[in-house]
Amino acid sequence: CLNDIGKVYVNQKNLQEALTFYLHALEIFKLIDNKGDNIVTLCNIGEVYDMQLEHLKAISFYQQAVQQAE
Question: Rounded mean pLDDT of 24-41?
């Protein structure tokens, strides 16, 4: 649900608010050990950082997603 709200904010170009929801979702997914949604959220965060031209941060989150998927 938090990821969906984040996507709405991405579509509205409100990237900071999207990031807030994604980071909150990430905390929850880590807490309940939900690997699949955790990976999706890491990619979503990477996407926001890419859109903000913060490519090194984006790569970091994409790499975390790949590591967790292995």
Answer: 95
Integer CA distances (angstroms), 66 to 13, 33, 43, in order: 26, 16, 9
How far is the C-alpha of 42 from the C-alpha of 39, rounded, in Å? 5
Output phi, psi for 49, to 5 deg: -65, -35
The single residue listed with the structure tokens 């900071």 is 16
Predicted model pTM = 0.94
Alpha helices (H) in 1-70, listed in sequence order: 2-11, 15-31, 35-51, 55-69
Give CA separation, 25 vs 6, 53, 68, 70, in Å: 9, 22, 16, 21
